[in-house]
Amino acid sequence: MYLKSLTLRGFKSFASATTLRLEPGITCVVGPNGSGKSNVVDALAWVMGEQGARAMRGGNMADVIFAGAGSRPALGRAQADLTIDNSDGLLDIEYSEVTISRTLFRGGGSEYQINGAPARLLDVQELLSDTGMGRQMHVIVGQGQLDAILSSTPEERRGFIEEAAGVLKHRKRKERALRKLESMAADLARVSDLAQELRRQLGPLARQAAVARRARAIQVEVRDATARLLADDVVQAQSLLEAGDEDKEALAKRRRSVEEAERVARARLSELAAVETTSAQRLARAGGVWEELTGVAQSLGALADVAGERIRLLASAPTASHGTDPEELERRAEAAGREEAELLDAVETARTALSDATRVRTDAETAEKAADQELSAAQRRVSERRETIARAGGRVASARSRHEASLAALEQARSALQAAETREERARDALAEAGGEREGQDDATAVAGKGAVPGTAAEASAAEAASRAAAVHEEATRRLAEAREAVSAATDARREAASDRATWTARRDTLAMSLRSQDGTAALLQAGVEGLLGPLAEHISVERGWENAVAALLGVLAEAGLAVDAGAALAGLESARGQDVGAVRLVLASEPSMGVEHDADDEAVPAPVDGVLVARELVSVTRQEHGSLRRVLDGLLKDCWVVEDIETARALRATLPDAVVSTRSGDVLAPGWVAGAGRGSSSVLELSAAHEEAEAEAAAAAQAETSADAALEEARRGEEVARQALSEALTALRQADAEAARAAETMARLASAVHAATEETGRARRVLDRAEAESVQRTAELAAATAALAEVEGESEPADGVDAAGDVGGHGPDRLERALERARQEREGAAEAAREARGAETDARLALRTAEERERSSRGRADSLRAAARREREQRAAAERAQQRRSAQLAVATHVRDQARAAAETARACVQQAADERATIEAERAEALAATNEVREEIDQLTKELGSLTDAAHREEVARAEQRMRLESLAERAMSELGLELEPLVEEYGPHMLVPEVVEEPDTAPGADAEPADDRTGDHTRARARQAGHPYVRSEQEKRLAKASRDLARLGKVNPLALEEHAALEQRHQFLAEQLADLKRSRDDLLSIVEEIDARVQEVFAQAYEDTARQFASVFDRLFPGGEGRLVLTDPDDMLTTGIEIEARPAGKKVKRLSLLSGGERSLAAVALLVAIFKARPSPFYVMDEVEAALDDTNLGRLLEIFTELRQSSQLIIITHQKRTMEVADALYGITMRDGITKAVSQRLAQSDRGTAVTPDA
Q1: Which long-range contacts (CB under 8 A, 24 or more apart) does 943-951 make?
Q2: Please, are residues 206 and 1002 in contact by the beta-carbon 8 Å criterion?
Q3: What pLDDT, in 10s, does the model give residues 25-48?
Q4: Could you give the CA distance from residue 866 to residue 872 in angstroms, rounded to a whole number?
Q5: Which of 160, 533, 945, 952 could make an SS bond with 138 (beta carbons 3.0 to 4.6 A apart)?
C-alpha cells in the first residue's frame, strides 16, 4: 500500500487544480522558502481527517481556502483528493484503489467522500486506523513537531506507540462502551426508582379499589332514594298546577265588570272636558284683550313722560365755545415763513466752509505720507549697514566656538584612548586568570575568537551536582505520585460514603412518607387528643422477617393508634365523630380483662408441626412504661401461629382446625375465611422496621463519611508536603543547571569583554586621528573669519547725494545718521499740520449739522398755523346750525306730550271693563273643573280595583310558571342524575309505588378483584333481592338518602378508576422489573467487553513498547555512536496508563536529561524515537517536513542511511532543502510560486526519460 496521487483544488496557495503523482520509495519536495512546500504536508493531514486549525497553521479552518492573490480572486471552497494503492488489501475495503476526498466550503460546510460515495469523518478515521493515522498523526512529521515530541508528557509519548500499534480502534471501542455504561447507569437508577415508586403506590391503590367497590353499593341507595324523592316533588308540582286553573276563571269574571264601570265614567269625563275647553278659550280671549288695553295705556303714559324729558333737555342745552382768532393765526404764519428763509441761508454758508476744510486736510495728509516714506528709506539704509557688520561678527564667533569644540574633542579622544587601553589590559588579565593561561598582547583578536578553556574540575563538580539534584527530583516525583494515589483513594472512599449516606437518607425519608397514613386514625392522632400515644407500630417491635405475618394477623389494627385506656379511646372517638374524620381504630394500652386470660394461658404451648412459631412470641413492646400492652397484644394474637409457607400452614390447619395461621409473606388461613397479602405489598410493621433500619444505616454512613473526610484531609496534607518537596527538588535541579550554565556564561562573557575592549581601543585611536585633523581645519577657519570682520569695519562708503543743508561727501555712518534725523523732524511737522487740518474739518462739519437741524425743525411751522385758522372758522359755522335745529325739536316735543296724556286716560277706562268680563268667565270655569275632579276620582277607584285584579292574576300566573319551571328543573335533574323522563320516573318511583326491601350484597374480601358496576338505567334493580314492599313515606326516604350520603362522604375521596389503575400499575411494575433485569445484563456485558479491550490493549501495547524500546536503543546507537539511549516506563505495574520517558546520553556526556542537550542533539533524539516506532511497527507511508534541517553533514549522512532502509518497506515523502537528501530520492517535485500561486514540477530520478512536468488542470 502506498500513496498514489494527491490532487489539490483551492487549498491554500494551490489556486488551480494541481496533481502530484507519487511513487513508492523516497519522494523529495524541494523549492525556495515560502513557495508552498509545507502546504503539501498540510493537505495530506487535512484530507485524512485533521480537525485542528492550529495544526493547519491557521486561525480557523476556513484559512485553508485560497484567499486570493494578484489578479486571482478568492475561491469559495478547498478540495483535496488522495488516491491510495490498496492492492495488498491493507485497508479494510473491497477496492484495490481508494480515493479519499474532502471539501470545505467558505460558509462552513464540509464533505467527505470515499471513492465518490458520501462518508463521515468517523468512516475515514476507521478506514485509516490500521495505517498509524490517529489523533497524534505520528506518520506526518511537520515543522516544529520534533521539539513538540520531546516536550510532550510521558502519556502523550505513549499515544505515538499506541497509534503505530493499532490500539486506537480498541481505545475508541472502549470509549463507546464507557459512554454507554455512563448513560446506562443513569437509566438503571431511573428504572430502579420507578420500580420502587410503583411498589409503594400499589398498596394505597389497592385500598382505593376497595373503597370504590363500597362506594358503588352506596351510590345505588343514593340513586333509588333520590329518584323517589324527585317523583314525589313532580307529583306535588302537577297537583298545584291543576288547582290554580279554577282561581283563574273567577278573577276573569270580576275583571270584566270593573272594566265596564270604568268605560261609563270615562265618557262623562269627556263631556266635562269639552265644557272646560270652551271656558278656557273664552277666558284666554278676555285675558288677551285686557292685557292689550293695559299695554296701550302704559305705552301712552310712557310716551308723555319721554316727551316731557325731551323738552327739559332741549331747554337746558349749553352754548358753544370759540378758540383763537383766525386773523391772529394768519399773522403768526407769515412770521414763521421769514425765519425759515434765514435758516436756509445759514446752511449754505456752513456747507461752503466744510468744503474748504476738507481740501486743506487732504493736502496735509499727502505731505505727511511723503515724510513717512523718506523716513522709512533712511531707516532701511541704516539697518542694512548694521546687518552687514553683525553677519561678519557672527561668522567670527561661530568659527571661534567650533575651534574651541575641536580642541575639547581632541582632549576627550586622548582620554578615551587611554581608558580603552586600560580596560583592554584588565580584560586580558581576567581572561588569563579564569582560563589558567594568558595570551600575548599582540594576538588579542585570536584570543577573543577562541575564548577561554573551562576548567575540568569545575565541569565535573557541576555535572555531579546536577546528577544528585536529578536523583532527588525523581525521588520527590515518586513520593508525590504516591501521595496523589492516596488522595484519590481517600476521595473515592469519601464519595462512596457520601453516596451511601444519601441513599440511606433518601430511603429513610421515603419510608417515613409511606408511614404517614391519611385515614381517620392518622387525623385523630395529629389532632393532639389527650391520652392518645401515637401509632401502634411505633410502640412494638417484631422479629426481623415476620412483620408481614404479624401485620396480617392484626389486620386493620396494625395501622391503629394506641390509647392509654378505654376512657382516652372513647374521648378520641367523640373527637373523631365531632370532626367527621372517618373510620378510627385504636388499641388500648391497658385492658384488665385481657390480663386475666393471659395469666391463665402463660404456659408455653408446644408446636404441633415443625417450623411453626407462636405469633405473640415474635412481638415485643419497645417502651417499658406500657407494660400492660404486652398482655393486650397476647390477647389479640391468641391462638395465632406463623409459618414459612402455605404448605406448612395447611399442615397446621389439619392438626389444629381452630388455629389462625399466617405465612411469612402475609397470607392468612383462619376458620371460615382466607386472606391473601398480594404481590409487592408491604405492611405497616414491615415499613416501620425498614424505616428503623434505614435510620441506623444513615447514621452509620454519616459517621463513615466523617471518617473519610478526616482521611481525605490527612491525604491532602501529605500531598501538599510531597508537592513542596518536589518543588524544592525542582528548584535545586534548576539551580544546578543554572550553575553549570553560569560557568560557561562567565567564560564566554570574559572572552567577549576582551574582544570588546580591543575593538574599543581601535575605535578610540581612529577618533583621536579625526579630532586632530578637525582641530587644524577649525583654526584656519577662525583666522579667515577674523580677517573678513576687520575688512568690513575699516572700509569707507562714498557719499551718493546732497544732504538737506547742501553739504557734499562726508563719512558714511555720520551722514546716514544726520539724514535719518532730518527725515524724522520733517515727518513730525507734517503730522502736526495734518492733525490741525482734521480738527478744522470736524468743526465745520458740526456747524453744518447744527444749521440743518434748525432748518428742519422750523420747516412746517407756517403751514400748521394756516391750517389751524381754517379749522376755527369751520367750527364756528357748525355751532350756529346746531342752535337752529334745537329750537324746532322743542316745539315738536311739547305737542306730543299733550296728546299722549289725553289718550292714556281713555285707555285706563277700557282696561277696567275688560277686567270685569274676565272675572265672570273664571267663575264659570271653576264650576266645570269641580265636576271633572269628581268624575276622575271615580275613575281612579275603578282603576285601582282593576290593578289589584290584574296583580292577582299575574301572581297566579307567576305561581303557575314557577311550578312549570320547577317541573322543568325536576325533569332536567331526573335526566342528568337518573337518565329518566318525568313520566317513566313517576310511573316507576311515584308515591303510589311500594318501596321494596333491599338486601345489600356482602363486601368483597380484601384483595379480591371485582368487575366494575354497570351504570345503565335500571341496572340497580337487578342488583337487589326484592321482598314484600312497604308504602312510600317521604321522611323515611329523606333519612335513607341522608344516611347513604353520609356513608358516601365518610368514605372520603373515591377514585372511580382505581380498579383499572391498579391493574395497569401492576402490569407496568412487571414491565419495569423485566427492563431492570435487561439493563443489569447489558451492564455486565459491557463490563466484560471493557475488560477484554483492556486485556487486548495491554497485550498489544506491551509488545509494541518492547519492540520500540529495542529499536530505539539500536537507532540511537547508530545516530549517536558511543552514546546510550533507552525508553523507560513511568509506571511499569500499570501498562494501561503508564507513560514513556526518554533517556538520552550522547558520547562524552554524563547527563541524560533532554533539556541539557543541544538543539541538533534534541532533533536527532526525536528522529531516533520516530524511526524506532517506524521500524517496530511499520506504516505504509511517512511524511517528513524538513526534519534534517538542524543536522550537520555527519549526522545527516547517518539519518539518510536509515531513510534508505525504511524505503524498502514504506513510502517516504520528504520536504527538504538538503542536497544530499535529494540525491537519495527516487523522484523530485519542484515547488515554485508566482504571483502568490503555487505550481509543481516533477522529475523521476530512477528513469530520467519518464520525467514529466505537472501543470494545472484545465
Answers
A1: 943/262, 945/258, 946/255, 946/258, 946/259, 946/262, 949/251, 949/254, 949/255, 949/258, 950/255
A2: no
A3: 888 999 888 888 888 888 888 888
A4: 10
A5: 160
Cα dist. 1202→583, 1107, 1194, 1205 in Å?
Answer: 97, 17, 13, 5
> All 3 cell numbers of residue 1254?
505537472
What grid cell was written down for 746?
562567565
Q: Are strands 2-9 and 18-21 parallel, antiparallel or unpaired?
A: antiparallel
Instruction: Residue 1198: name the closest of 1141, 1119, 1130 by CA.
Output: 1119
pLDDT at 101: 93
User: How is the beta sheet containing 26-30 ordered, strand by strand?
Assistant: 140-141, 1181-1185, 1211-1215, 26-30, 1227-1234, 1237-1244
pLDDT at 756: 80
pLDDT per residue over 767-790, tens digit each? Answer: 888 888 888 887 887 788 787 777
Question: DSSP string spanning 783-813?
Answer: HHHHHHHHHHHH------SB-TT--B---HH
Q: Give the integer Cα–Cα distance in Å for 983 and 971.
A: 10
Query: What is the spatial distance between Cα 263 and Cα 943, in angstroms, rounded to a whole number?
Result: 11
Residue type, 556: V
Nearest-CA neighbor of 586 among 568, 601, 602, 600? 568
- Cα–Cα dist 1002/672, whole Å: 15
Q: How confident is the model over 352-400, as pLDDT tens digits?
A: 887 888 888 788 878 878 877 877 777 777 777 777 777 777 777 777 7
Look-up of cell digits 463519611? 705
Cα–Cα distance for residue pair 1244/28, rounded to 1 Å: 10
Reference 521, options 557, 560, 562; nearest CA is: 560
Residue 643 gets which letter from DSSP? E
| CA-to-CA dists, residue 432 to 420, 438, 441, 454, angstroms | 18, 4, 11, 11
The answer to whether the CB of 1224 falls within 8 A of the CB of 60 is no
Determine the length of the chain.
Answer: 1258
Residue pLDDT, tens place only, 654-703: 878 878 888 887 788 888 788 776 655 556 666 677 777 777 788 888 88
CB within 8 Å of 1033: residues ≥ 6 apart = none
- The pTM of this model reads 0.36
Residue owning grid cell 389503575: 1061
Q: Is the pLDDT of residue 888 over 70?
A: yes
Closest CA to 168 of 137, 209, 197: 137
- Rounded CA separation 736/1225 (Å): 45
Strand partners, 85: 2, 97
Write out the DSSP string of 429-487: HHHHHHHTS---GGGHHHHHHH-PPPPHHHHHHHHHHHHHHHHHHHHHHHHHHHHHHHH
Q: DSSP string covering 958-993, please? A: HHHHHHHHHHHHHHHHIIIII---HHHHHHHHSTTS
Give residue 1214's identity as a one-letter amino acid code.
I
For strand 619-621 and strand 540-542, is the pairing parallel, antiparallel, or unpaired? antiparallel
Q: Which 3 state secondary structure label does DSSP give 34?
A: coil
Amino acid at 848: L
Tell me the CB-side half-sphere exposure of residue 1255, using CA atoms within 13 A.
1
DSSP class of 65: B
Burial 977-987 (b: 16+ CB within 10 A, else e): ebebebeebbe
In the chain the first and final C-alpha atoms are separated, in Å, by 30
Distance, in Å, from the CA atom of 1104 to the CA atom of 1111, rounded to the nearest integer, reads 10
Q: Can you tell me the distance from the alpha carbon of 53 to that of 64, in angstroms, rounded to the nearest whole number?
A: 9
Task: Enumerate residues 6+ apart whose C-beta is below 8 A from 924.
Answer: 279
> Would you call 379 exposed, middle or buried from its count of C-beta atoms within 10 A (0-12, 13-18, 19+)?
middle
